[in-house]
From TrEMBL:
GO terms for biological process: tRNA modification. This is Queuine tRNA-ribosyltransferase accessory subunit 2. NCBIfam families: tgt_general (TIGR00449). Binds 1 zinc ion per subunit. One of its GO terms (cellular component) is mitochondrial outer membrane. Non-catalytic subunit of the queuine tRNA-ribosyltransferase (TGT) that catalyzes the base-exchange of a guanine (G) residue with queuine (Q) at position 34 (anticodon wobble position) in tRNAs with GU(N) anticodons (tRNA-Asp, -Asn, -His and -Tyr), resulting in the hypermodified nucleoside queuosine (7-(((4,5-cis-dihydroxy-2-cyclopenten-1-yl)amino)methyl)-7-deazaguanosine).
Amino acid sequence: MAGSRMKLELSRVIQGRVRLGVLKGLGRTGQHSLEVPGCLLYTPFGTVPHLTQDTLHTLSKLPRVSQVTLSNIAEHQEVLEEFKDGFRKFAGLHDTVLYCSLHDPAAPCPTGYTTNKTVSVWGSGGRIELTVAKFMALQKSVQPDWYQSMADGETWQSNTSRKRVRKSVDRTLAHLDECLLAHQNSKELEGVEVFGVVEGGDILEERIRSARETAKRPVDGFCLDGLQTGSMDQALRIQLTSAVTKELPEDKPRLLQGVGRPDEVLDCVEAGVDLFESFFPFQVTERGCALSFSFDISPDPERAGSTPPTVLELNEEDTAGDMQQNGDLNLNDQTQMTCFEINLKDKRYQDDFRPLVDGCGCYCCRNHQRAYVHHLLVTNELLAGVLLMIHNTAHYHGFFVALREALANDKLDLLKRRVLRGEQTERKE
């Protein structure tokens, strides 16, 4: 948009595609920034699941951008309109930049409910149909710092016809034009930034067309949709993502929706993606699991230990044991355990008095043992989710810190070897 404060300053571009830098000028006053590659803070309704704001902010190096979703907010529109001061104040958030997306990346979204004029979101009360007018009215009541434009994202399934994919791209561009027009005529949204959405299913030509046409519009960044885990083969995702990022301007950020697994993050960073949604730690927590993969690229153990939450050497016995207990792990199913976590519900942890991850500096690992978290899980204590979410959030954001450090020091290949050891272990089983 004209007068946008959001600026992406790149310090390095590696092999013409991998980008390291800082997204500056975030927020209504432009005082915040976000390092890239990076991720947003996953908050479906303004709060990280299982954690209070005070508990959350005991963690270091959290992203300055919190994600909220219309699928959770839409049913509260009347309350927010009556409140008048926006969602940030309504939810009692700390000083944070607010990004509003259409769907919750960790929740299933039924297909078949999109029309030429509407899209649907799914809240706790069921389906809510949104026209562009209702969508923009919601943005005015939420008062985010930036938001994703309305889009037809129902073409992620592999059996979607070419005609349906083409219609999705056309609808999304039409929605974007209407949203931009309404945005420009709204005093309430002055200074708020808009991300255009790139669709196109699994058809290369439509992906490129969507990217080119979206880039012609006065948007501040781009959401790459329909490429989420489970929707397509990983190699095809990288091919499509690489083709899309070639068509997008260098000075605007690219946010990939629905991808969170560490190996996929690394592949997509190499394909030119800047930002990710951090819903993966929540999914791991809901499974009763703890993230446990290595991303320490520092040759100095003392230095690695002094920079929480960098960690760790993967305990291959843990990983192998969980593989045996869980059978073949399906890396394409977001509900299934992955090779980057350990299952603390397993009985063999009932007398394991080690921290969740050796070397992790989070509150859970400093104060509790695997056996205690196992006990909490099998007795259905709420504290289990709290402790696991603390650890998983710290571990995941620590991974992104290590990723940026690896790019800055030409150690991306070393980081990939560290992270992918878990996947290699799985393949040997």
